[in-house]
Amino acid sequence: MNYLSTRGLAPRLRFSDILLGGLASDGGLYVPESYPRFSAAELAAMRGMNYRELAFEVLSRLIDDIPHDDLKRIIDKTYTAQTYRYVTDQENAEDITPLKTLEPGLHILALSNGPTLAFKDMAMQLLGNLFEYALDKTGGELNILGATSGDTGSAAEYAMRGKRGIRVFMLSPEHGMTRFQQAQMYALMDDNIHNLVVRGVFDQCQDIVKAVSNDLDFKARHHIGAVNSINWARVAAQSVYYFKAWFAATHSNDQEVSFSVPSGNFGNVCAGHIARQMGLPIRKLIVATNENDVLDEFFRTGVYRPRPQTKHTSSPSMDISKASNFERFIFDLGGRDAAKIRSLWGAVETGGSFDLKTDGLFDRVAGFGMASGSSSHANRLDTIRTVYEVYGTLIDPHTADGLKVGMEHREPGVPLVCMETAQPAKFEDAIREALHIEPVRPAELADLEAQPQRKQVMDVDVDAVKRYIVEQG
Ligand SMILES: *Cc1c(COP(=O)(O)O)cnc(C)c1O
Q: In 87, 130, 396, 407, which residue has its Cα 20 to 30 A from 8's Cα atom?
């Protein structure tokens, strides 16, 4: 199978060719030439499979240039109870993403049992093993450069630590992450992990990454790569747990399930869209945002209008004003018209917006089964309190946004699955504010913040970052 760019001007490539890259050469995002589709009989045969078996069924349809035996080995090595070991319900330790039922027809899919307590481990751990496999084959090296405001950086570092041929240079802002998030990254002592703490804010970290990546000569000479959320392998890996949840929430193939997804870069919900294109009977994909409501505005009005400034909220991992994976969805919505995407994103990239209502494209959104809503700080705390008091379950602020918006679109007789994107222990301040209690942490992380830390503090200086990469590379 080939992958093509949403902007239509880049060469068609195989999975392994796009694995290590970011944007296509024309600035677009790679998507499969066509989505492989599971028949009803094939879906029925997948019921009862464990996570590893499901992952192989789904991913082997999307990855056809890695021999199946190798792919199976990579998947089996990734999705183990040992890696996803923070399952709170120990009876289900082998079920790495248990479906927790709050009441009949209302569920939370626990996706945050990996090493960094956020759902990003689900895809990033696979990415680490795929990268290692690809580099082993070619004998190549990769210097991963990234910027993080919290969860992505730690997930990437835990996935890449100790991997041959890979170094991680992760820029993080001096202020803005929780102490827990900082300690998760800075306590890593692996030789191939470099934490560069920038005396600035997240946007400045991101600007440095862009500046280094735009130096094409430097990028090629030093094998600079990325693991950001547009990476196709990450999105593909995330589609697996929609299958997993659908099987867990239904008894037969003729049942539909709605999913509510706390959203920032549109990666998670894009994976749901792909699962549906592959034949999974999804009724609604509910896009939940926080106060940064660009996506909610689009699904309500047809206007996509990224904001120049991001608001800082108590669900910080969704503080994003430009949803990088959104282009993949609009490509499909618009009937895969690359010229249309070039013109829409031409406007967005020069600080503008687009309105799909005026040209009739927005009418198709209903056919794609999308819904949306947004949440405020007060909504978030209320939801954390209600879920704790009514169901005895503690959820994190991002998951709370998802549940709040999901409930607004719940329909009788249709199971609703809310994606849990982080464990509450990662966002203690919000839990304290809502309930005046301390979330319980996994025992081995009890003294995380007290462990020795290793980090390199730097000014906002592109050349200093380049020099550091050269010296360590
Ligand atoms: C990354 C993240 C999100 C947003 O996911 P997207 O794929 O960017 O939409 C939501 N919640 C948490 C906790 C995250 O880490």
A: 130
